[in-house]
Amino acid sequence: MSKSNYSMPTEFLLVGFTDYLPLRVTLFLVFLIIYTLIVVGNTGLIILVNITSSLQTPMYYFLSNLSFLDISYSTAVTPKMLVNFLTSRRTISPYGCALQMFLFGCFADAECLILAAMAYDCYAAICKPLNYPTLTSRRVCACFIVLAYFSGSVTSVVHVCFTFTLPFCGSNVVNLFFCDIPPLLALSCADTHVNELLLFVLCGFNQSSTFMVIFLSYVCILITVLSIKSSGGRSRTFSTCASHLMAVTLFYGSLLFTYLHPATSYSLNSDKTVAVFYMVVFPMFSPIIYSFRNKDVKNALKEAITRKLDFQMNESSSH
């Protein structure tokens, strides 16, 4: 049957976590607290990096952009999810669905490139310390950021256009709590092999190429660290990148599981759990993983608090 016999649904129904109201209210409160922590924690980190001269380095420049991305792709999904916890009919318009898909895909793809840029920064700092100012100049860092947002925008536009030109028939129930590519492909009554191939190629290229940059960077870092004779020196050198390595493992593991398997093997429960992890849990722990275990950030935070207290004391004494 031709595509013209089908029309775009007037709305999509998003599958929530449960239909049991008391549990939905509990989940609403839990995710509201988590989302608040995401916004406050990452916003605080962005402000701290921008007001502290000692943090005006490429690594923290990338880190502040990473925090912005964590806030952005979580905000693309979480507010609507919170509203749906308190409503019996969890609907979203096709335009809202397309916008949600675009924003989430754009920011998530950009995050992969920022993580790769941070790995490159670690490599330059540890393996090429004499050339570090040149390898991580302001122009180089700006190019990384522009490439990240441009790449994320282009791939996301392609996915949205190809997905929403498909004919949808029968059910309009999206088997996830937000509009994502695999569950929407499952609703189409047309052959989605091209879309699946496009998803595999674009997401695969983005994730595999950035992962390769990260992997090669850490291979070089490991070789350099092992060449250090002092065990204390090796430990101190490698500890600077340990938090980044932990975050990369968590983020890439969940993305690879979600997007690099065919839509026919799509599992509601497993993919929903993984989606919650990289959409809500990872952005919440990101400031902790990257920063609050970091001596530079802790010192900068102490200095900012001290300056604030001194200012308040001077103000009160002047009055």
From TrEMBL:
Coiled-coil segments on the chain, per record: none
Task performed by this protein: Putative odorant or sperm cell receptor.
Pfam families, per database record: 7tm_4
One of the record's GO molecular function terms: G protein-coupled receptor activity
Protein name: Olfactory receptor 5AS1-like
Domain of life, per lineage: Eukaryota
Transmembrane portions of the chain: 20-48, 60-78, 98-120, 140-166, 209-228, 240-261, 273-292
Keywords: G-protein coupled receptor, Membrane, Receptor, Transducer, Transmembrane, Transmembrane helix
Domain G-protein coupled receptors family 1 profile: 41-290
Gene from which the chain derives: LOC114490185
Location within or outside the cell: Membrane
Keyword Transmembrane: yes
Record's bilayer topology term: Multi-pass membrane protein
InterPro entries recorded: GPCR_Rhodpsn, GPCR_Rhodpsn_7TM, Olfact_rcpt
GO cellular component: membrane
Keyword Transmembrane among UniProt keywords: yes
